[in-house]
Amino acid sequence: MLIKDLGEIRLINRIQRIIKNRDKYNHILSDNLLVGIGDDAAVWKASECIQVATTDTMVEGIHFNKGTIPFRDVGWKAISSNLSDVAAMGGKPLYALINLGLRPETPVNDIDELYAGFLDACIEYNLQIIGGNLVSSPTTFIAIQITGESTHAPMLRSNAKPLDQIGIIGWIGSSKGGFELISHPRVITSTKAKQQLLNAHLHPIPRLNEGNILIDNGVSAAMDISDGLLTDLHKFCEASRVSAKIDGCKLPIEKALINVFPDNYMDYALNGGEDYALMFSTSPKIMEHLKRIVPAPISIIGNVEDGPIGEVIIIDKLRNHILTASSGWDHYK
Amino acid sequence: MLIKDLGEIRLINRIQRIIKNRDKYNHILSDNLLVGIGDDAAVWKASECIQVATTDTMVEGIHFNKGTIPFRDVGWKAISSNLSDVAAMGGKPLYALINLGLRPETPVNDIDELYAGFLDACIEYNLQIIGGNLVSSPTTFIAIQITGESTHAPMLRSNAKPLDQIGIIGWIGSSKGGFELISHPRVITSTKAKQQLLNAHLHPIPRLNEGNILIDNGVSAAMDISDGLLTDLHKFCEASRVSAKIDGCKLPIEKALINVFPDNYMDYALNGGEDYALMFSTSPKIMEHLKRIVPAPISIIGNVEDGPIGEVIIIDKLRNHILTASSGWDHYK
C-alpha cells in the first residue's frame, strides 16, 4: 500500500500505533512531558534552566538513496546526527520533533521502517518523539529537531585555547569508506571489514555519554565532526581564533579502512564527513585524566596553536606540512 | 548569482550578515540566549518551567509556487504558521530553528528575500532565529521549529466540554480565496477585495496576543485552523470526545470573499485551509467577558454538544443540517 492510498489521518494514526506498540519505548517516557503528539504544539516541564536545541536534515538523493540504504538505518541516522550535536554541547537530549516530506507514492512499509529506526535510536538514548509534521513533497526529506537540557554551560567551538591538546573520540573516514562500498559494490573486501565500514556509515554512534563526561570534567571546547575533519577543525579554529597542528599519524583511522582503501584512506579521514566523532580540546592535564576515565579510546591528534586564525596544518610521517584550507563537504558544490 | 556559485560557507555568512544588518531585529535580542547561530546547537536559559515547541514545513510546488508568491511572503508565512500553533497553546514564542532545503540553482536573491520575510515576522512577534541547517535538495523546502514558554498549563484540543460556546478569532476562507485569485488571475474583482484576499493568503496573522488573553482568562480548549474549519473542528471534537453544532450564518466570512466568490465562499470557509484563525471553546460567561476585552472581534459560531464523538453539524439559514465528516485538506490525496 502507498501512503496516498492511506491518506494523512490514517498515516498519522498508523505512526502513533507504531510508537505505542514499541514496548521498550514506552519504558523511557517521562512525566515531564505534558503534551506530546497530537496537539498544536508539544509542551514539557523544564527540569534544568539550560535548554539545548539543534536540527538536522536528510534529503533523498543527497544524503541517502532509496534502495541502497534501508529506511530503518535512515531513521537511526537522522536521529543520531542530531544527537551528535547535542553530545558536542555536553547536553542531555530529551525530545524530538520529526518533520517528514513524503512522496505520495511512498510505500507505507517504508514509513514503518523509518519509524522503527527512529525508535531504535530513541530507546538507545532515552529520547521522546513529541510531535512533528507530515507534508507531501516531490522529494523525500527528514528534518528533525531535538531539544535537551544541560546542567553546565555548554562546550563551544569558540573555547579552544593555545596549548590545548586536540582529542577525538570515535573513528574518522570509516563512514566515507562505507559510503564508497555502497556506491561501488564491486570493491573487494573481507566480510568483516565491509561490515565495519558499512556500520560506520549506516549506524553512527552519537557520543552522548562521552560528551557528558567531558563537560563534567572541565572540557569547554568541543564540536562533532560531521562535514569532515579538515572542514570542521578549520571551523573550530576559526571560531576560537586559533590554529591547529595535527599529526597525520595520530588520526583515529580504522585498520579496515586502510586495508580496503589503501590509496584513499587519508583523504577519507580528512574530508569524508558523516563521522559523528566527537572532537574537543583541553589542557594536557585534563586530557590525561580523561584518557583514564572515558571508556571509549581518545586519540590525541595534535595541538591548538596561536597561529593564523583558522589555519590547520597536517604533518605527515616525514614531518612535511600539508597546509589546508577548508576543503570538506560543501552542500552546494 | 546562484547559491551553487556562492557555496555553503559564504551562503551562511551572507545569512548571518542579513540578520545582523536588520536594525530592528537587533533590538529584540534577549540575554537569555546563551548560544545562537554558529555552534553545534543553540542554548538558552529557560525563564519559565513550561516549554512549548512546534514545527511546520512549506514545500515548493505544494505550499507555494515560485513566481506566484514572493519569497518574502513565503518567509513570513513559514514563521507565522508555526507562531499560530504556539498561539493556540497560549504560549509565548521565543526561538526559531530554520531548516532550508535549497536547489543549487536558487538565486541568492531569493534567499535574501526569504530571510527578509523571516525577519519581518521575527521583529513583529519578538522571535529570535537561533540556528538551523542548510542542505541541498532537488525540491525547495522550509522546515521551521519554534520553541516558546508559557506561564500557564496549555490550552488543549481535548479540553472542550458540552455547553461550551465555540469562538473564532480571525477570518476563514479568505486565504483560499487569495489562493484562487493567484491561481486564476482572470477572476474579476475590485482592487480592494483582491488585496484583502491576497493578504489573507500571503500574510496571515498568528493570533498570539489573543491566545495569551484567552489563557489568562481561563480558556482551556483551543486550536488553530490551518487545515480548514471542518477538518480542524472535527479533530477538536474528536480529541475532546464531543460533537459540535455550528450556525453557518455566524461564520466569520469576509464580505470581500462573498463578493468575489458568491458560489464558493461557503466551501472555502469550511474547507479552505491556511486561515490561521484561532478557534476555542469556553463557558458562555467567560465568552461574554472575552468579547469585551479581546481587541479583535470574536465570532461565536456554535456550541459544543454531548453528541456522537467528532460529529460536526452545520445548520444553514433554513436550519437544515449539513452533516459532515472530515473533509478538509489531506496532504496525500
Automatic annotation (TrEMBL), chains A, B:
- Sequence ranges assigned to domain PurM-like N-terminal in this UniProt record: 38-148
Please list the residue ranges annotated as the PurM-like C-terminal domain. Answer: 208-314
Q: Which InterPro entries match?
A: PurM-like_C_dom (IPR010918), PurM-like_C_sf (IPR036676), PurM-like_N (IPR016188), PurM-like_N_sf (IPR036921), ThiL-like (IPR006283)
Alphabetized Pfam families for the sequence: AIRS (PF00586), AIRS_C (PF02769)
- Please name the GO terms of the biological process aspect recorded for this protein, alphabetically: thiamine biosynthetic process
Q: Which GO terms describe its molecular function?
A: thiamine-phosphate kinase activity
Fetch the SUPFAM superfamilies from UniProt. Answer: PurM C-terminal domain-like, PurM N-terminal domain-like
HAMAP family noted in UniProt: TMP_kinase
The name this protein carries in UniProt is PurM-like N-terminal domain-containing protein
